[in-house]
Amino acid sequence: MIRIALAGLLCLLTALPLRAGILADGTRVIYPAQRRETTLMLANTNRYPVIVQSWVDDGEGNPDLARAPFVVLPAVFRLAPGERQAIRIIYNQDPLPPDRESVFWLNLYEIPPETRGQAETPRVTLAMNTQLKLFWRPAGLTAALDKAVDKLRFRLVREGTGWAIECENPTPLNVSFTSLQLAGGAGAAPDMDMMTRAFSTRRYALSGPPGGARQIRFSWLDEHGAAKTGTAAVGRVIPSSTP
């Protein structure tokens, strides 16, 4: 899963056309604990140079708040149009849970240049932050993600005046969805990050009533970020613990 955020700075210049121009050679990073470091290749597909700042955090998207146990090198660099750059991600050995996968976010913050001759005209300068999930896997964790998906359990839960799909993940791996749809019924409302963490339970609000559905169709992301589909039975309706 990739998240893209825009940071706008109002200044007295003219706006440049902007899109997410920094592309990585993967949509996620798997970091086995036994490795000293892992690398990711980036490419600037813009028609202009950019300055890129890179760091790992818990999803805040703010380098000043980053507390994740990873260092990214180089932390700041320039990429010309069409240029490629490998970044190194290094685990600093701060303790992480040894029995499950830990999740962090790799940030790629790109800042476009200011062009000459436009200093006297108004513009909005936009910087774009692309976030990729980073999964740290402890040594000895050999569970396969597709097997973890097979162990997921789903229930329908009443929440106030609405309904939700409750997903229970009893495995040491994190499972990311792109969609959850009841067979013949409503689907989960869109969410920027539809992930059920290892050894946890998460609820996904439905966009409408569930009807009589007792099966769910879902799309999940494999270790390479490719979408896979699956189906599962939906358990009994249980009362919500939410007041």
TrEMBL record:
<dbReference type="InterPro" id="IPR016148">
    <property type="entry name" value="Pili_assmbl_chaperone_C"/>
</dbReference>
<dbReference type="InterPro" id="IPR018046">
    <property type="entry name" value="Pili_assmbl_chaperone_CS"/>
</dbReference>
<keyword id="KW-0143">Chaperone</keyword>
<keyword id="KW-0574">Periplasm</keyword>
<protein>
    <submittedName>
        <fullName>Molecular chaperone</fullName>
    </submittedName>
</protein>
<dbReference type="InterPro" id="IPR036316">
    <property type="entry name" value="Pili_assmbl_chap_C_dom_sf"/>
</dbReference>
<dbReference type="InterPro" id="IPR008962">
    <property type="entry name" value="PapD-like_sf"/>
</dbReference>
<comment type="similarity">
    <text>Belongs to the periplasmic pilus chaperone family.</text>
</comment>
<dbReference type="GO" id="GO:0071555">
    <property type="term" value="P:cell wall organization"/>
</dbReference>
<dbReference type="GO" id="GO:0030288">
    <property type="term" value="C:outer membrane-bounded periplasmic space"/>
</dbReference>
<feature type="signal peptide">
    <location>
        <begin position="1"/>
        <end position="20"/>
    </location>
</feature>
<dbReference type="InterPro" id="IPR013783">
    <property type="entry name" value="Ig-like_fold"/>
</dbReference>
<dbReference type="Pfam" id="PF00345">
    <property type="entry name" value="PapD_N"/>
</dbReference>
<feature type="domain" description="Pili assembly chaperone C-terminal">
    <location>
        <begin position="168"/>
        <end position="227"/>
    </location>
</feature>
<dbReference type="InterPro" id="IPR050643">
    <property type="entry name" value="Periplasmic_pilus_chap"/>
</dbReference>
<keyword id="KW-0732">Signal</keyword>
<dbReference type="InterPro" id="IPR016147">
    <property type="entry name" value="Pili_assmbl_chaperone_N"/>
</dbReference>
<feature type="domain" description="Pili assembly chaperone N-terminal">
    <location>
        <begin position="22"/>
        <end position="141"/>
    </location>
</feature>
<dbReference type="InterPro" id="IPR001829">
    <property type="entry name" value="Pili_assmbl_chaperone_bac"/>
</dbReference>
<dbReference type="Pfam" id="PF02753">
    <property type="entry name" value="PapD_C"/>
</dbReference>
